[in-house]
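Obj: model holo form, ligand = pyridoxal-5'-phosphate.
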Amino acid sequence: MPAYEKFCSKLAMGIKASDIRELLALIKHRRDVISFAGGIPDPKLFPKSELADISREVILKYGDEALQYSETKGLIELREILSDFMRRVKGIQADPEDILVSTGSQQALDIVARTLIDPGDVVVTENPSYLAAIGSFKMAGARLVGVEMDDNGMDTQKLEEKLKALKKNGERVKFIYTIPVGHNPAGTSLTLDRKKHILELAEEHDVLIVEDDPYSYIIYEDGVDSTSLKSMDKYDRVIYLSTVSKILAPGLRIGWIVSPRDLTRRFELVKQYLDLHSPTLTQFIVAEAIKKGLIDRMVKVATPYYKSKRDAMLSAMEDYLPDYAHFTRPIGGLFVFVWVNKEGFNTTKMLETAITKYKIAYVPGANFFVDGTGFNTMRINFSYPSHDEIYEGVRRLARLIKGE
Ligand SMILES: Cc1ncc(COP(=O)(O)O)c(C=O)c1O
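Output (holo C-alpha cells):
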C-alpha cells in the first residue's frame, strides 16, 4: 500500500481532525450518552409532510427543470423570492442580481474566503467565533485576529484599537467577520450602537464586513435588536450570509449571499468551479416553501419551542453548576457557552472522560478561540436534547466539573 500522505497537499495535511467530528463519530450510535455537542436542530420541528407534498409537487410540475443542471448563481425563481423575503423579514433591499444561492452558508463562507483572502491577509473575528468559519478562513491562508466579547457581543472599542494597531503595522485586513445576532457559540447580540460603530470603522479603515446570520430569525427575548448590518449598509461594505438550515432544514443545503453586485459576480465565478450550482431540486423546494409561508410558520413554532429548551438549560445550570462555572444567557441561537474558573481545568483533555465516565458530550471551547486560549470553556447545545436529557445531562456535567 503506498504512503498516501506523500500524495496529499500541504493544505490537506495542514487540516487537523476536529474534536467535534471525532467525538460525534464516537457517540453517534451510543444511546447512553447525552450529547450537547452538535449544533443541530431538533428533527421534531422538520415540517415533514408539508415538505413531502412540496417535493412531490415540484417534481411532477417542474421536473424537467428541477432535475436538470441550472445556473451557478441560483434559480431566478428562488433569488426573486429571497429578494422579497430579505426585504420583508430583514429590511434588506437586494435585487435578485445581488443574490447568489450557495450550498448552505458553509459554502458561502468558503466562497467568500477563496474570493477575498490571499495567504497572510488578516481577518478580524469575534473571539470566540464559529469554528467552521475559522477553519474556512485558515484554509484560505488568513491570519485571524480575535476581538474580545462581552454580553453585547464584540467590544467595538477593542475592535477600533485592533484595527488601528494593524494599520500601524502595515497589515492588510480584508474583512471583519461577525455573527451579530444569536452568536455561535456565545449567544450574544450586538447593540444597534455597536453595529453602527462597526460600519463606521469598516469605512474608516477601508475593510469589508462579512455578516453571518443563520440565527436572527429565531429570538427568545423581547427588545433584542435584530437589525441586520446589511440593512444599515450605506457604504456598501457588507456581505450578508444566511441559510434555511435553522428555519427549515439543514439537509436541504440551501444558503445565500447578498453582496454588492461586483462582488456577487466574483463569487459566482469562484462557485462555478466548486459545484457548478447548488442542488436545483432543493432550490425549487425552498422557493415553494417560502412562497407557501412554511418558513414563517416554522419560525413561529420553533421560537417558543427552543426558548423552552433554553430556559430548561439555564434553570438546570442554575440548580446544578458550582458558582465558579459561569454561563451565557443566549438571546438566540442554539448554544450556551460555559467558563469554568478552576485552576488547570481543561475541557479538551476532559472530553474522553466526559463521554466514557459521565456519559455526556460537549464541544471543547478552545476550538472557537483564534488565539489559542479558551481551554476552560465549552459549548453546550440545547436544541437537540429533550427537556429531560437537558436536566439529567447538566446534572452529570456538574459532577464532571466538580470532579465527583
Ligand atoms: C454561524 C454559522 N454560520 C454558518 C453555519 C453553516 O450553516 P449551513 O448549514 O447553512 O451550512 C452555521 C451552522 O451551524 C453557523 O452556526
